[in-house]
Amino acid sequence: MDGHAEDDGRVFQASGDQHIHEHHHYGDGGARPAGPDSVRRPAVGSVPVVLRDRAEVLERLRASVARGPGGELFVLHGMGGCGKTAVAHSLFQFATANGRVGLWVNASDRASLRSGMLAVAADRGADDGALLAARNGLRPAADLVWDHLDRSAEPWILVLDNADDPEIFRDGSWLRTSPRGTVVITTRRAAARWWPGAELQHIGVLPREDAAQVLCDLAPHSGTVEQAAEIADRLGRLPLALTLAGGFLSHQVLDPWTMDAYGRRLDEGGRVDLIDRGADALSDEDPRHLVGRTWQLTLDAFEEHGLPEAVVLLRLLARLAPEPLPLSLLNHPEIGRVVPQARTETALRALLDQSLTELVDVGMRCVQGHAVLLDSVAAATPSRGLDALDSTAGRLIGAAVPLVPDAGPYDARLRLFKPHVLALLKRVTDHTTRAEVLAVATRLAVALHRTGDYLSAWETARAAAALTEGALGADHRLVLAVRSRAGRALFRLGRYAEAESLLNQVHGAQERLFGTGDPDTLDSAHGRQLVLGNVGRRAEALTLLRETVAGRRAALGPSHPLTLRSRASLLTMLSAAELTGGENADLLALPAQCVRDLGPEHTVTLGARHNYAWALYVLGRFEAADEEIRLVADVYERRFGPDYPIALSAQQLLARTQFARGRVGSARELLGDVVARRERGLGAQHPFTIASRALLNEFRTGT
């Protein structure tokens, strides 16, 4: 009889009278499906009051949206800062005002695309179980999303904003059309091969007259239309550059600038504003060059008016990603290393006033900069200040990530930090700072993992390793640690062969470099034994687990949570005879020790009690097992929700204990609910679902 264990579980099988194939899980729980709090509101900050020179494009797009319920795929492409998002936003507003449901997703990276699209599925009626399974990689996420979009009772418009990496759409086949709605994509990538079946619409720079009018809209008292047109020509008529220039001109109160004065300063600075400050050499067409000529004048004005903190804050933001960043990070004392904390509010307001950054609401208040602007600022930041900026950025993110990440509940901020820590790893140049930021990235991967977001955990760990291995070396302790976390995430995703291969490599290197008793080595050993136990190599897993227990006891002490966690795993590995043997007799007292050392609701304590209930069941002490697992199941459901695998695992064990006590009706009802939830969340053919259904059939036939 084939068995399949999930997570920290082990498969027990016996011939003859007894067949046991129980699913156990503890320690790395999660919460409800993650994603943006809302996909109904575009996370774009401020938009132009008047959208200049887009009437023809918008008329065509609006006519298509008004004709029917859907089936269209539009791609708005053009250089960064040309106003693609503004056009999409205007179309979004038109569609929602005319009866369509508006859905807006940030498609700048895989994690944002996946979480946003799963939030779309939730909006269109997907239940928590299905969303959780898709988020954890246990069922195809794109299929779930598009199935609900296709069955939407209301017509919709879906905007996929900032899709500058089309490759991410191929992973899971995210790019599709539907008869129930219209898809609009904004991107810098114009090649038709990336967008099969789409109608491509180029969004270019503004005509001279409209570009001039943008400046006059923003700074009506700074000069004439003709003077504005001359400024617009110098700025390449790029909407983002015009917005920055207009914002600057409109906020000079004590010493107002005219457009003529602004133009003279542009001529004086020219291209050397970037190149002389150590920037990359830019082509005439590069939007960073056009934008750089505008923001540099603004930064100069900050310096002249006694607000150098605004300059430093913008350079700090430019070390991170052009994605929403929780405002709370900027209010942490660590920011005082580069900007006095008391002056941060004033500096941020100055940046907001000058349109150098904007506030967005993604369920929490965030600050976000435009990608082209941040790239331009990063390219021109003097090298002498980079180390302090990078170190501060890393410490700000590190202060927001738990020092010892625990299981659940879901923290919406964690996923927001992922693009920022990876962007920082790409920019950092100092060896010591790179190692510090890598440690933060590893801790973030652990935190994501322990809220059940295994895909994001794996992506974070994998990307962090790839970004640092070349500079730090493959044998660096932190590189090996983050690769170990990637292996642990692969295991949770059910990719056992990949997980085993990676963890074998990492564990072998750690043993060679640090010794068998090193905490990092022991962490990888614990991860390896999980994989071995789930692929049927029980003897190897048990030997490795015993070595891990002994090593953690020696290195960390008998009461350390990791020592207790590894000891608790033994409760799921041992037969009835082994559980009552001399060397294992004290294991049955482990839950009481966990309560005493860690507290009654500590994650390790709950895991130990769960596994203790299984051990009682194996020993035939069904009444005691039933009482114990019932209490644990109640806590799991309260903390993680009824559809989470750990809660379903506990409910399945409760069904077993009920059946063993002769309460057949209750057992069938409990397990029937498990089967239904697993079918809904994982699909009918998932191994977990198959195992639960087989057990339910046994209950129904009385075998």
TrEMBL record:
Transmembrane segments: none annotated. InterPro entries: NLR-like, P-loop_NTPase, TPR-like_helical_dom_sf. It comes from the Bacteria. It holds the Pfam family TPR_12. Gene3D superfamilies: P-loop containing nucleotide triphosphate hydrolases (3.40.50.300), Tetratricopeptide repeat domain (1.25.40.10). PANTHER family: AAA+ ATPASE DOMAIN-CONTAINING PROTEIN-RELATED (PTHR46082:SF6), ATP/GTP-BINDING PROTEIN-RELATED (PTHR46082). This is Tetratricopeptide repeat protein. The lineage of its organism: Bacteria, Bacillati, Actinomycetota, Actinomycetes, Kitasatosporales.
